[in-house]
Amino acid sequence: MTSSVVTVLGVVLMALGLLFTLQGVGLVGGSPMTGSPFWATAGPVIALVGLWLAVLRRVGRRRG
């Protein structure tokens, strides 16, 4: 995949991870995920994977 596609995928994963986290802790309602400890835990993990794809992977490739 090109770096642009990977970056966009990372940003999407970060946004979804944030949404899942907010739903898991009950700040965003309207879905079965609301108030679920699983999503309160899985959301940050998904967001971190997105961060790695969007930012850290690009920085690592520039260095060598």
TrEMBL record:
Alphabetical keyword list: Membrane, Transmembrane, Transmembrane helix
Q: What is the official name of this protein in its record?
A: Integral membrane protein
Chain segments annotated as transmembrane: 37-56
| Organism per entry | Pseudokineococcus marinus
